[in-house]
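To assess whether ligand presence alters the predicted conformation, the chain was also submitted together with zinc ion. Input:
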Amino acid sequence: MFHATGRAAAPATDPCSRCDLLLGLEGVRVEHVDRGARVMTVTVSSADGSAGCPSCGVVAVGHGRRKRMLNDAPGTVRVRILWRQRVWRCPDPDCARGVFIEQLPGLVAPRGSITVRAIDWAIGQLRREHGTIAGLARQLGTSWKTLWRAIRPELERLAADESRFDGVTSLGVDEHVWHHVDRRRRGPRELTGMVDLTRDEHGRVRARLLDLVPGRSGKAYSGWLVERGDAFRRGVRVAALDPFAGYKTAIDARLDDATAVLDAFHVVKLGTQVVDEVRRRVQQATLGHRGRKGDPLYGIQTILRAGAEHLTDKQLARLAAAIEADPAHEEVFIAWQCAQDLRAAYRAGNLAEGRAIAERLADSLHTSPIPEVARLGRTLRRWRAAFLAYFTTNRSSNGGTEAINGIIELHRRLARGFRNRDNYRLRMLLIGGGLFA
Ligand SMILES: [Zn+2]
């Protein structure tokens, strides 16, 4: 039977096997259940048995019990485990051990106050349910500090497992800012993140954050690649990146067998920026002031930024009218066409066709009389191989890395910021799927 609260409890010598089953903790049996409105307290003890002295091996004699309160994973109410821990005494007068206390590592760490399964539960909540340490600590009835102190070693152990780097054939890199306070207090604001972009058997990318290292530089990336060892570096076939020369240098120096791929989204963005710049310059030159309401080029900003394939007839007509309003607007139109050509290369259903468009752009834009377009052309020429690699690596991109950055940002907000970089790394590795938890 289930031992109810408030009534005469069943004697401790008559444990209920159904309660043991319901509790589901191995190695202990339920002696008593006290179910309050907000907290359920389950009294447990280990099964009968004997113990040998850890020092001399002599069979120990019982020396009473000690009550120890543990926080367990909650159900509909908070659960506390009252463990009547056995105390033993070594009977050998020559042994220095004296008294010792039983340990059940499957239940709780020697000096812990949170059960092993509650720690697992909390890690699962952090990993998959957008949990926060503060919220989980509240549910467990413990403090932020106590819970984090219990979780941290587990995450450190998972992070130290080098097998999590196995099988990476596609690697992304990007940086993000993790704090805005004084660098002297918290170190560099930027972190470089490495993301596993390897496709699964269905060809889908399941982005996984592999690591975060301080700084935003080729050196940061390069140092991390060296640490991973030869086998890891030889395994990487595709290395995606945004147009940042530092990371490109690291890829060229450390990943001999990999093809660097410039991220498609960023290339398209460079094109859109050129249109914006040309529009602003032309506007200033023709009107003598920055664009304002009523100016022909001002009202079409959004139209200029969109893909032509998304524009309605009405929008196309507005675009045409704005361009025709002044012969000087022709430059804007040409820049817009270049940006649309860039998009078209990526949108082409056929990779060979897309590559042909991309090659033409990489070989011609730098000769444009429009300075902004020419500058984009020089960038594409400088990044030519990485730009064209998109079309020979089955559309590899750094998109998965961007997605991970989005998750990181969300969790940084949920946690209301982080003060400690090591804690930040562990938490982000966990939620970014980088730990086998
Ligand atoms: Zn002993």
